[in-house]
Amino acid sequence: KNPVNNKNNYSLIVIQLGTNIVEQVISQLVDIEFVSKDDHVFYTEVVNKDADYEDFKVYNINTRENKKVLEYGCHIYAVKDENVIYGELNTNTLNEDLYVYNLKNDQNILLEKNVRDYKYINEGKIYYTIGNNENKSLFSINIDGTERTEIMRNAEEIYAIDNGWMYVKKFGR
Questions:
Q1: CA distance 85 to 81
Q2: Overall pTM > 0.90
Q3: For residue 165, is it left (φ>0), alpha (ψ between -120 and 50) or beta?
Q4: pLDDT digits (tens, 9 = 90+) for 67-124
Q5: Residues 36, 37, 40, 46, Cα dihedral to 10°
């Protein structure tokens, strides 16, 4: 097969450090999107070559399980304790809708619509802004979708969360 027509031009290789043992674990993929600390690899693969449609899959290096989990076009922000935090473009607002997908029970929860900017997950809370270029508010929500809290208005950008402090650039005084 011509690799350009195939579109799955890459493979995933793991190398055991120390022994330099090389193993191919996924033979054909388009792109690796995210590798979590718990050995989950999120990647895209073209399944229907005529429609140019990519499936979004997860591969567990420990169990060798490989399954489709999300639709292509989403943006994975983080993976925390079997939970995938991701966004999908909302064509009405041109922002993203923020979701959490649980790998164990296949449950998908819409956390928030019209998310302008996702930034951080810290101690089970997700921090993000809602709004547009002129007016953004900073919010937090638990990974399970509870305790949605508006923290402040006119939040321009979250720079960092470090040692219990969040650094935010704010518009105005």
A1: 11
A2: no
A3: beta
A4: 888 776 677 788 887 788 888 887 777 788 899 988 888 899 999 988 887 767 888 8
A5: 30
State residue 6's pLDDT score: 67
CA 137, CA 151: separation in Å to the nearest integer?
A: 8
| Helices then strands, each counted (H, E), the chain | 1, 15
Total Cβ atoms within 10 A of residue 12: 17
Q: What is the pLDDT of residue 111?
A: 94
5, containing H or E segment: helix 3-6
Place of tokens 């190398």: 15
Give CA–CA dist 28/10, Å, rounded: 6
The type of residue at 63 is T
Q: If you ran DSSP here, which 8-state letter would residue 30 be given?
A: S
Specify whether the CB–CB gap between 91 and 55 falls below 8 A: no
Confidence of residue 49 (pLDDT cuts 50, 70, 90): low
**Strands 165-170 and 155-162, bridge-based pairing:** antiparallel
